[in-house]
């Protein structure tokens, strides 16, 4: 019996079920030109990446372990210096690294969600979401919902409602399941109304059902609010289903950049083939 290895690698790949937004005329919200990053002189991780992401797009970044996905995300938000080329994110353009002021401006307009949600476990769910306002005010008062201004608490409650967790507002974070905690992390990232949401493997530590819930929540909330979503994933079903576009990295290069509806099994097999 012959085995179709592509089918085995990506068994549930289906066609995209949502309508991709028409973003052609929209502004570029992220743009890199010849972006290079090397942590050491002889180890180039990103080798001249040209990438444009337009406002309102939902983009999945894929590639093998170590292909540079997280490095690219960090470069786009100025979390580490780049080695060459340029980045323009939300109108802040920089070469080696953003200035302190640019970094602040970027943080104010972006939300972040990571595989490990980093909630403060002893605090309430509401306090954790209110904490998302910290960058807005630069104030310790945002840390605890008892001392936060009422409009912030209201906003945090509304955002918790959007992720279907309003009834858990006063529970301690550590009383929630992993999937629920990741939804709190999404609320914390969304509470300030960011223009871009960056998510690094947001579903990686969740079971298939919770992971799917979280990804579908991301896609829906970002689409409803017109937020640009850029996420990394090793789950090709998530990438094809919840992103309008897939950008693949391989050996330091941009291997392909296509609408998710056009990505084939063999494209994916090639990305992950050594
Ligand atoms: N701070 C660092 N210092 C030195 N090398 C690093 C650093 N961060 C990442 N690297 C190296 O850069 C390469 C790309 O790492 P990166 O985390 O960007 O890959 P990735 O595609 O996100 O991987 P994964 O899918 O496993 O999360 C790896 O070889 C990694 O060891």
TrEMBL record:
The entry's keywords: ATP-binding, Cell membrane, Membrane, Nucleotide-binding, Translocase, Transport
Entry keyword DNA-binding: no
Domain ABC transporter: 30-273
Origin superkingdom: Bacteria
Family matches, as PROSITE patterns: ABC_TRANSPORTER_1, ABC_TRANSPORTER_2
Annotated InterPro entries: AAA+_ATPase, ABC_transporter-like_ATP-bd, ABC_transporter-like_CS, MetN_ABC_transporter-like, P-loop_NTPase
GO molecular function: ATP binding; ATP hydrolysis activity
Assigned protein family: Belongs to the ABC transporter superfamily.
PANTHER family (UniProt xref): AMINO ACID IMPORT ATP-BINDING PROTEIN (PTHR43166), PHOSPHONATES IMPORT ATP-BINDING PROTEIN PHNC (PTHR43166:SF6)
Record protein name field: Phosphonate transport system ATP-binding protein
């Amino acid at each position: 019996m012959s085995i179709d290895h592509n089918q085995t690698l990506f068994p549930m790949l289906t066609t995209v079920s949502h309508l991709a937004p028409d973003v052609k005329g929209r502004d570029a919200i992220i743009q890199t030109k010849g972006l290079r990053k090397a942590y050491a002189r002889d180890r180039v991780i990103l080798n001249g990446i040209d990438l444009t992401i337009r406002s309102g797009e939902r983009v999945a970044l894929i590639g093998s372990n170590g292909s540079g996905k997280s490095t690219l995300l960090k470069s786009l938000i100025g979390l580490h210096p780049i080695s060459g080329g340029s980045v323009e994110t939300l109108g802040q353009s920089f070469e080696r690294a953003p200035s302190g002021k640019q970094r602040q401006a970027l943080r104010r307009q972006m939300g972040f969600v990571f595989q490990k949600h980093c909630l403060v476990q002893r605090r309430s769910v509401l306090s954790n979401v209110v904490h998302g306002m910290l960058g807005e005010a630069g104030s310790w008062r945002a840390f605890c919902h008892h001392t936060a201004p009422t409009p912030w608490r209201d906003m945090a409650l509304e955002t918790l409602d959007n992720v279907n967790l309003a009834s858990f507002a006063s529970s301690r974070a550590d009383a929630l399941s992993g999937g629920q905690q990741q939804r709190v992390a999404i609320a914390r990232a969304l509470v300030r109304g960011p223009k871009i949401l960056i998510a690094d493997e947001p579903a990686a530590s969740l079971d298939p059902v919770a992971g799917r819930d979280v990804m579908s929540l991301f896609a829906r909330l970002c689409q409803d609010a017109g937020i640009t979503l850029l996420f990394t994933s090793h789950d090709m079903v998530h990438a094809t289903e919840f992103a309008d576009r897939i950008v693949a990295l391989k050996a330091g290069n941009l291997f392909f950049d296509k609408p998710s509806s056009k990505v084939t099994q063999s494209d994916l097999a090639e990305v992950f083939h050594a």
